[in-house]
Amino acid sequence: MARLLILSLVMGGFHAMTTPTLPAQAPADKPPADKQDKAPVPSLELQDFRPKPALKVDEHDLQKAKFPVVDVHVHPKFRLRHSAERLDDFVKVMDAQNIAVCVSLDGGMGSDFDEHSKYLWTKYPDRFVIFANIDWMGDGKKDDPGSWACQRPGFARRMADELAKLKKKGCSGLKVFKNLGLVYRNPDGSLMRVDDPRWGPIWEACGTLGLPVLIHTGDPKAFFDPIDETNERWEELKRHPDWSFYGQDYPSYKEVLGQFTKVVESYPQTTFIAAHVANSAHDLGQVTTWLGRYPNMYVDIAARIGELGRQPYTARKFFESYKTRILFATDGPRDPKRLHYHWRFLETYDEYFPYAENPFPPQGFWRIYGVGLSEDVLRDIYYRNAERAIPGVKEKYEAYVKQQKKD
Asked: Taking a C-beta distance cutoff of 8 angstroms, is the pair 129, 103 a contact?
């Protein structure tokens, strides 16, 4: 035992004498000597951040759609201001991009419809179909909801009668804006609900007349969340604080969309087109549930390729599964570059490219990926579904294709 103890002490001392001493290490956070004279990195405000990706991948700058397209969501009155010159320029863009027909959602009612139809159809009768809009205010005062036409007895029935007249003038559907549910108010100050039973005759009449209802309900979910460091659309809401519906007496995101689906369920004979992927492009599982539950519901993809393109696997499956229920749309008229991104998103497998031509992303700090849809799926989304869902589209689409063959 004593021998083992002595051996241990000897070996320990030998180890201590033979182990080399390592040089002192510089602190981990201290840069090497040749880097210490570098200037510090300047601070940068988020609004000035413009990163240029170093990624090198295949790119396909598609200049037009593979097949003639029907864009079911455009606003020529609001964007072109009824300028004849701007309309001519837009039709040139349509020609160059292979857009056969556009659905104007700016028809209004009465004399407004007459004026808008004259603007579009005098020179381009085969390139546009027109949806009407409900005149909720009528001859009332803007700041006095109690004086609005929609607060008077029989309003919805009068609107139904007006829609019947407009159909005879060539009206193809009804567009309802998000003001219903989020902006317009009752005399007591409460917001007018989408599912208010008073509007029932309007939805019923659209079903009877065969006029689809393209309805914008709610807005992106981020617009209903606090504008704080966790909101991925913070920058957008900083630029447009009036787009926020968080707090106060606004309904929740879930509640306002619940009002919409209640109407869809209550009027199964009426076709409803939910604008902007039902403002649920961030949750395609939910949209899938609705489309499975309500056979009278379609969605358009207006202004939502930014959301769809950041989830390419899920989005591709969604397009393939519901290829007969999804409509091409842009919320245009759009710049040609924006249209190129639409073709690239739908037709290629390109990776990590912009979803808008703006120098600063309009909806979020991300890029998108193409979903590379098959020709069959593209045909459904580009024009077949619009032909099935919207009166007047098929005839005008065929006229365009026939003219293209002549040219």
From this structure: yes
Give the pair of three-digit tokens for residue 385. 């579904």
Between CA 83 and CA 87 the distance in angstroms is 6
**What order of strands is seen across the sheet that includes strand 297-300?**
69-74, 99-104, 128-133, 173-176, 213-215, 272-274, 297-300, 326-327
Predicted TM-score (pTM) of this structure: 0.90
d(CA 50, CA 360): 8
3-state secondary structure of 219: coil
Q: Digits of tens for pLDDT over the chain (407 positions)?
A: 433 333 343 334 434 434 444 444 545 556 666 666 678 888 998 778 888 899 999 999 999 999 999 999 999 999 999 999 999 999 999 999 999 999 999 999 999 999 999 999 999 999 999 999 999 999 999 999 999 999 999 999 999 999 999 999 999 999 999 999 999 999 999 999 999 999 999 999 999 999 999 999 999 999 999 999 999 999 899 989 999 999 989 999 999 999 999 999 999 999 999 999 999 999 999 999 999 999 999 999 999 999 999 999 999 999 999 999 999 999 999 999 999 999 999 999 999 999 999 877 788 889 999 999 999 999 999 999 999 999 999 999 999 999 999 88
User: What's the rounded Cα separation, in Å, for the pair 16 and 66?
Assistant: 78
Q: CA-CA distance, 245 to 251, in Å (whole number)?
A: 8
Strand partners for 213: 174, 272
Backbone angles phi, psi at 169, to 5 degrees: -90, 0
CATH T-level fold of 64-405: TIM Barrel (3.20.20)
Cis peptide before 333 (omega within 30 of 0): yes
> How far apart, in whole angstroms, are the C-alpha atoms of residue 237 and residue 242?
8
Q: Phi, psi at residue 270, to the nearest 5°?
A: -105, 135
Q: Are 274 and 299 a contacting pair, CB within 8 Å? A: yes
Find the helix or strand (DSSP H, E) in which 174 lies. Answer: strand 173-176
Q: What is residue 71's three-state secondary structure?
A: strand
Radius of gyration of the chain (CA): 29
